[in-house]
Design goal:
mainly alpha, 10 helices, globular
C-alpha cells in the first residue's frame, strides 16, 4: 500500500481479496500491520479494515501486535481507525498477564462519553469486560460505569452490548 498522486479507493470486495491474500502472504500481512500502526490517513484505515477480515486463525498474528495496537487506540484522533483497532483488540483473549490498565482506563472513560461513537463505546464495553472479568473489584467498577448509562438513550447495538455485559457481571 503506497501513496500515489490520486487517492486510493478500496471497496469491500478489494478488502476481502486483500485479507484472503494476506492469509497466505506473511510479508503482506506484516505490511498491513505496519501501515495500520503508522496511523497515516486512509491507508491506515484500509489496512486495519483488511485485518478485521482475517479469520480467527489469524488471532495469534494480531496478538503479536497487541501493545502497538493498544498504543494506536489510545493515541489516534481518527475515530474510524480507533473503531477498527478496538475491533482487532476485542478479538483477542485477555488474561491477567496481558491486561493493559491504560486501555482499561480509556475504555471506562469512553463508555459513558456521549461524544464517542456508539461502535467505539460498544467495543470499549467488550474490552473492559474482557479485562475486568479477572478481578471482582474491577468488574464492580465496570458494573457501576454501565449503570450510569440510561438504556433508553442507547442505540440498539450499544444497548445489546450493555445488557449482555451487565448479565455477565456477578452482582455483589
Amino acid at each position: 500500500m503506497t501513496t500515489t498522486d490520486s487517492p486510493i479507493r478500496l471497496g469491500a470486495a478489494d478488502i476481502h481479496a486483500l485479507a484472503l491474500q494476506a492469509q497466505q502472504d506473511n510479508h503482506l500481512l506484516q505490511q498491513l500491520f505496519a501501515t495500520t500502526l503508522s496511523g497515516q490517513g486512509r491507508e491506515a484505515r484500509y489496512a486495519a479494515w483488511t485485518l478485521t477480515h482475517l479469520p480467527p486463525a489469524a488471532n495469534p498474528a494480531i496478538a503479536a501486535h497487541r501493545d502497538p495496537l493498544v498504543m494506536l487506540a489510545l493515541t489516534t484522533p481518527d475515530t474510524s481507525l480507533l473503531r477498527l483497532t478496538l475491533n482487532l483488540l476485542a478479538r483477542l483473549t485477555w488474561q491477567t498477564d496481558n491486561i493493559r490498565t491504560d486501555l482499561l482506563d480509556f475504555c471506562l472513560a469512553a463508555i459513558p462519553n456521549p461524544r464517542q461513537p456508539y461502535g467505539v463505546r460498544a467495543l470499549c464495553i467488550k474490552l473492559a469486560w474482557q479485562q475486568c472479568r479477572h478481578y471482582p473489584e474491577l468488574a464492580a467498577e465496570l458494573r457501576q460505569t454501565l449503570l450510569l448509562l440510561d438504556p433508553a438513550d442507547l442505540k440498539p447495538g450499544l444497548k445489546h452490548t450493555w445488557a449482555q455485559t451487565l448479565r455477565l457481571i456477578p452482582t455483589p
